[in-house]
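Hi again,

Forgot to attach this to my earlier email, sorry! This is the prediction with 0O2 bound. I've pasted everything inline since the attachment limit keeps bouncing my files.
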Amino acid sequence: MESGVYGKYAAYLPQVMDLLANDVKTYNEQYRARYGESAYEHFLYRVKSEDSMAEKCSRKGLSVTPESALGRIHDAIGLRIVCNFVDDVYGIVDYLRALSHVEVVEEKDYIRAVKPNGYRSYHMILRVRTPFEAAPGNPEGCYYAEVQLRTIAMDSWAALEHQVKYKKTLSGVDLALITAELKRCADELASCDLSMQTIRNLIREKSEETT
Ligand code: 0O2
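Structure tokens for the complex follow:
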């Protein structure tokens, strides 16, 4: 039965996701061997449900078809990598850019170009060459995936801001005040991320001197 928005391509999506997830895990093993610690604090990945994807296609005025879901929209596969330190985010970005079977088709550095509400994160849209049949309209064997990379601080901020944005029951609260407070928190967290990075660099320099 191929009634969902992904059609017969639904079966390939978890496999494509696992290919990419394994790349990230391989990087982490190399990083661990070098530094004795993990490159990320946690790493989540998912295939967007067919219902959510069908809703997104409709919302964007696209036909509810595999062509739209896998060719016009690029986050059927989503990976979120949450790191302890900002440099680790950029280390993983460089690694993904260098993969021979991956092409970066879009990048948004919301860490350097912070969104006005305070949102920080690094977003990449990857086109992955796979052994699987591609959806009509896509280059042969190609699937898209969205990768979001951020620090733990950025991640907890985004979760809280998401709640504020989507909670329908926030009547009676001063939304302007909450928005301003969220922005202030985002900037304070960014300042802490910077300080933590500096401390980590110092620790690493010292331990390299003594080994
Ligand atoms: P959904 O339904 O999960 O996509 P799009 O092309 O529609 O995916 P856009 O705005 O072109 O969206 O891409 P962008 O800016 O890279 O954002 C993609 C995703 O990043 C969002 O998915 C959120 O998960 C996250 N994101 C972006 N901006 C914010 C923000 O200000 N606050 C929070 N908490 N998350 C953000 P969607 O759009 O939520 O939905």
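The mean pLDDT is 95. Residues 175-209 form the longest helix (35 residues).

That should be everything now.

G.
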